[in-house]
Amino acid sequence: MRLYSCLLAAVLFGAMSRGQTVDIYTQFEHRASNLSLENMKVELQEIMKPAGLNLEWHSLQEATGKGEASQILVVHFEGECASDQLETATVKTGPLGWTSVSDGEVLPFSYVDCDQIRHLMITSLSAVVPGEREYLLGRAMARVLAHEMYHVFTNSTQHSSQGIGKAVYSSTELVSRRLVFEPRLHTRWFR
Question: How many structural domains comprise the chain?
C-alpha cells in the first residue's frame, strides 16, 4: 500500500509533492448543510490521503489574496448542498461537476452541482434518516470534487476507466463505502 501511495502521488499530482498544501476556496450559490460540508471535507481528505496533500479550506468571500499556498483551487457549489428538502432538487440534464478549461489548459476553477447530486441520489437519500442523508450527501460531494481535482492537478480533460477519474457515476458509487482513484493510471494522461 505504501508503494501504491507513492506512485499515486507521483503520477497523479506530477509536480506536486507529499505534504504540499492545497488551498481550497469555496463559494456557495445557496445554503449548505454544515454536516454535509464537514463530511465532504473528511471524505475528500481520505480520498486524497495517498497523495499526502494537506487540504486547507477557506471561504472565497473572506479571501485576502495573501498567503503562500502551493496550489489553489476555487470551487463554486451550485444549488442547495443540504438534503432536508429532497424534492427541491432541480431536474436538469448535465454533469455533477465540471472544471474550467481555456485554450486546452485546465484551470483551477471547479463547480459542483449539489442539485444534480441530490437529484441523482434521491432514492438513496430518501431511504435513510436525515442525519445519514447529510453524511451521504457530503460523501457524494467529496467524490465529485475529487474528480474535478483530478482534472485540475493532472491538467487533463481525459477520464479513466474506473474509480474517481471515470466520466460517469451511479448513485450507488456516490454513496458506496469506498471510491478511490484507479490504481493503474495511464501516463499518457499526465503532462
Answer: 1
Cα–Cα distances (Å) from 104 to 21, 61, 152, 157, in that order, read 25, 28, 12, 9
Is pLDDT above 60 for 191? no
CATH number for the domain that contains residue 167: 3.40.390
Q: Which of 1-10, 70-79, 95-104, 151-160 is predicted least confidently? A: 1-10
Q: Which domain holds residue 164?
A: 2-189
Tell me the torsion sign for CA atoms 80, 83, 84, 88: positive
CA distance 162 to 170: 12
Global pTM value: 0.82
**Average of pLDDT values for 151-167?**
86
